[in-house]
Design goal:
- Strands 1, 2, 3, 4, 5, 6, 7 and 8 form an 8-stranded mixed β-sheet that branches.
- This protein has a single domain, classed as Maf protein (Alpha-Beta Complex).
- Strand 1, helix 1 and strand 2 form a beta-alpha-beta unit.
- Helix 4 packs across helix 5.
- Helices cover 40% and strands 24% of the residues.
- The chain is α+β, with helices and mostly antiparallel strands and 198 residues long.
Length: 198
Amino acid sequence: MPELILASSSQARQALLSRAGVEYDAMPARIDEETARDGLIAEGASPRDIADTLAELKARKIAEKHPGAMVIGCDQILALNGETLSKPTDPADAMAQLKRLRGHQHSLFTATVIYDGAKPVWRYIAEPRLTMRPLSDTFITDYVTAFWSEIRHCVGCYRIEAEGIRLFSAVTGETTAIQGLPMPQVLGYLADRGLIAS
């Protein structure tokens, strides 16, 4: 049975796998994500394709070092009216992003690519859609100030599994996909391959 590696340092993704009882190792993929994303945007790539490409780059990076392992690569891109938004750089950027998102629906393209034997064998892209309440400037300032350390690495500046749920009036899509890893689909594939009991 191949070793399972999650090519991510995301605490949320690691927690999802751990809570599901999946045995794995976590190894962050060191890629120049910002440069790759900016290049794809410059080429006119869609948010869906950007997420898919970045997820594959991460999986490939680890798979090349561990060709005997099964590697899960993930990425998430937020799209607002077709425009791609990045993770916030500082609290002021987070506040500005939330002010753009408030009162609107946005999509989270959550891509997962699995490599086995150093080759891509499975991919899945989820598209949860979230509608943010028309939040006040004061609420946004207080929210970012209180939770900056928790949301600083989150695309969209929220954690749906915690206090971030308060920001939304409607959510469609799998909650785990919003958190960064579509667990029903990933677990289904792992079960089909015999890596977890079914």
